């Protein structure tokens, strides 16, 4: 079978397409024929070597595929079932614990492979009616947005959500927020992407290059009150404006560091004077993923996939991501039969 492995010390030039043996599931494992994956920012950091990992690591955390073989003790799945990955395959329920937070495609081998043998407990079903490429966008980006807005944010109809940019988490957050009756303000630096955001339901859009202090623009669009929730994916370069944009007693979900990990100015007084609530979000447990799937069963939401690459072209897919040419998710096609 074909598999992408990352040679140390990382870098797109060290992504190697290799031939290797198909794994055999142990008693409590299932064998998944991997149909699709999708790219996340975490995957990019691993591929670039910015998150060090073992030599020969099989990358990618997202997967949707078919169960083609089961171990003798497997009871949850049958051959022919369609499943999707959990980014933390050992975090089934409850609060995070360090020993449960082994990230697949980073701390252990992931899904840039045609077949994967994994514990029957490490996957969930996909939403009813979803294709495998659609389902493969959910385990990281979709679940992150779900936890930010639902588990931690406790989003209510009529509240206002700010999303930053047009990556996978932000687009999912926009779609989820609108489906739950919230108003959405979205930022982007591209006039074309701003139009696409409005077409997806964004109530207001702000060009953050034209308005570097875009937090003030958010206040102007909310009668000076600010937003109830901020989906903060930018990191150090955007955090100050996120604090400015949040309303008194608002919620900021800290998710990404696209603009860097360090905050350039001291803003702690603004945080506690506004009595803001911060949530650090790194995906969620499997029970949260199951709740998301059940919600999507009843929803008309479908992921936005702007580009699809074959597994062998994964370096080009990552470069496409680096160049910020995508809108929503980049899909990786692994088995198309």
Overview features:
single chain, 337 residues, Quinone Oxidoreductase, Chain A, domain 1, Rossmann fold, 2 domains, six-stranded parallel β-sheet, 10 helices, 16 strands, NAD(P)-bd_dom_sf, ADH-like_C, NADPH:quinone oxidoreductase
Walk me through this protein's architecture:
- This protein is an alpha/beta fold and 337 residues long.
- Strand 10, helix 5 and strand 11 form a beta-alpha-beta unit.
- It is built from 10 helices and 16 strands.
- The chain has 2 domains: 2-140 and 284-333, Quinone Oxidoreductase, Chain A, domain 1, CATH 3.90.180; 153-280, NAD(P)-binding Rossmann-like Domain (Rossmann fold, 3-Layer(aba) Sandwich), CATH 3.40.50.720.
- The strands form 3 sheets. Strands 3, 5, 6, 7, 8, 15 and 16 form a 7-stranded mixed β-sheet that branches. Strands 11-10-9-12-13-14 form a 6-stranded parallel β-sheet, sandwiched between helices.
- Helix 3 (138-151) crosses helix 4 and helix 6 packs parallel to helix 7.
- Residues 10-332 form the Enoyl reductase (ER) domain.
- InterPro entries: ADH-like_C, ADH-like_N, ER, GroES-like_sf, NAD(P)-bd_dom_sf, Zinc_ADH-like.
- It holds the Pfam family ADH_zinc_N.
- It comes from SAR92 bacterium BACL26 MAG-121220-bin70.
- This is NADPH:quinone oxidoreductase.
| Text of the CATH class of the largest domain | Alpha Beta
Order of helices and strands: EEEHEEEEEHHEHEHEHEHEHEHEHE
CATH architecture of the largest domain: Alpha-Beta Complex
End-to-end Cα distance, whole Å, is 14 Å
The percent of residues in helical segments reads: 25-40%
State the CATH topology of the largest domain: Quinone Oxidoreductase, Chain A, domain 1
Tally of structural domains: 2
Described by strand count, sense and barrel closure, the largest sheet is: 7 strands, mixed
Structural class: alpha/beta
Mean pLDDT: 95
Query: Which consecutive residue ranges, at least 5 long each, have pLDDT under 50?
Result: none
Which range does the strand content fall in?
A: 25-35%
Beta strands, count: 16
Tell me the CATH superfamily of the largest domain.
Answer: Medium-chain alcohol dehydrogenases, catalytic domain
The gross shape turns out to be globular
Number of helices: 10
Measured on Cα atoms, how large is the radius of gyration?
A: 20 Å
